[in-house]
Amino acid sequence: MNALLRTITTGVKSLLLQKMRAGLAALGIFIGTTTVIWLVAMGEGVSHRAQEQILELGAKNIIVRSVEPNSSQDNANSRVKKFGLLRKDHERIVATIPGIRDAIPMRETRMELRVENRSADSKLVGCSEEHLQMNQLEIARGRWLTPRDRGKKVVVLADQTATRLFRHQNPLGKSIWVGSEFYIVIGQTKPRTASAAIGGSLDARDYNLDAYIPLQTFRDRIGDRVLTRSSGQQFTGEIVELSQITVSVNDVDNVDETAAIIESLLKKFHKTEDYAVVVPKELLAQAARTRAMFNILLVIIAGISLLVGGIGIMNIMLATVTERTREIGIRRAIGAKRRDIIQQFLTETLVLTGTGGLLGVLCGLMCGPLFRGIRAAVTAISPDALPPIIYTLEPRIAPWSIGLSLFISLGTGLIFGLYPARRAAMMNPIEALRHE
Questions:
Q1: Which DSSP symbol is given to 391?
Q2: 92 near 265, Cβ under 8 Å?
Q3: Based on the domain organization, do 129 and 225 belong to the same domain?
């Protein structure tokens, strides 16, 4: 133990003789270790947010969505495309499939809302009363849609939609243009975190730019055909009866079986595959696999930084061996063995990499506060510079990344320090003593 302590003390003293060089060598390991922890933390944050969004869909839910097919003989020469779920599909699902607790339909389209000289390009959602709880929405003022509102021209505005139309005014009881008709505002929802696209199955969604009307009102007042004017002043459009049906089952064990029945039922009555059946619990498994692959990729990228740092360590240690050739010869002449020389130079290398690794871990643990500080600073300078999804992201330190980064940093020092140490140990003592 005493011999080991003397070796470590000697190694530290030798490094302190060249503080700048030793610091630059440790800097490469510091950057690599910090990079491992930071990249994994950001990846864990993104993955955690995605899994939260999937869980919000409900483990017992099955999402059936209308999807515009790539090609169709009926739509090939038409500017108005007809596709998607039908009201008959909703009726068939409810009537024929056992074990279903709820089947909630929804219709949505882009629509410009106007009041006086202000307008908002919003997503108009025709929905039922259950839509509020299903999407974790909360009422800020007023009320949500009720059964007695069916067929009436009433609307609930999302937070940013209300702000764009009324700024800081209370929108309750006010009239707004929805398309070509007036609607009365009966409520406003609280801000809700935007959701990112999940696995290519569900699109990104900003709930704060929505406007909600009764599904029956959507059908009566707007209809299934929605037309839009293109840049060439030509009308294009779509005919869609339902945009989505959210099916809830009584038992999570029946989700896969029910989804398969729904898919076969839709396939029987649809000529083209203009629908998608999404099972949230399958998305969770997919998200877990993606998370593992993403973390492996990030660790490889960060490992490259440690590799570069290790090459720097080896380069400096080789230069140190050359500079200390005479010292090595003296130590060998007074009885030091080759293993003692190897031990000394490996100790110096491990001190460098260990110091860089520990400092890198400390900096890596500051990932969350630094990320929030940079985000706040950028927002203060330019409020619209960052996309909304950045404000929902929070880095999550993975404990395993700390151990892995330290292991890699020390392993890098051991691997890249072994050659310089062996080169020093294999020197001929007589030739080393003659070195000037």
A1: G
A2: yes
A3: yes
Query: Are residues 197 and 240 both part of a single domain?
Result: yes
Same domain, 127 and 7: no
- Domain holding 32, by residue range, is 2-54+286-434
| In a domain? residue 61 | no
| Vertex 98 angle, CA 94 and 101, to 5° | 65
**Residue 370: inside a domain, yes or no?**
yes
Where on the phi/psi map is residue 142: left (φ > 0), alpha (ψ -120 to 50), or beta?
left
Do residues 237 and 366 both lie within one domain? Answer: no
The type of residue at 248 is S
Nearest CA to 36 out of 369, 309, 287 is that of 309
Q: Does 296 share its domain with 223? A: no
CA distance 27 to 378: 27
> In this structure, are 100 and 247 located in the same domain?
yes
Does 344 share its domain with 412?
Answer: yes
Cα(first)–Cα(last) distance of the chain, in Å? Answer: 34
Can you give the pLDDT of all 436 residues of the chain as single tens digits? 666 566 667 667 666 667 777 787 788 788 888 888 888 888 788 777 766 766 666 667 888 999 988 765 555 556 788 899 999 999 999 999 888 888 999 999 999 999 988 999 999 999 999 999 888 889 999 999 999 999 999 999 999 999 999 988 899 999 999 988 999 999 999 998 766 555 555 666 788 999 999 999 999 999 998 877 655 556 778 899 999 999 988 887 788 889 999 999 999 999 899 999 988 766 667 667 777 777 777 777 767 777 777 777 777 777 777 777 777 788 778 877 888 778 777 887 888 888 888 888 898 888 888 888 888 888 888 877 777 767 777 888 888 888 888 887 788 778 877 877 787 778 777 776 665 5
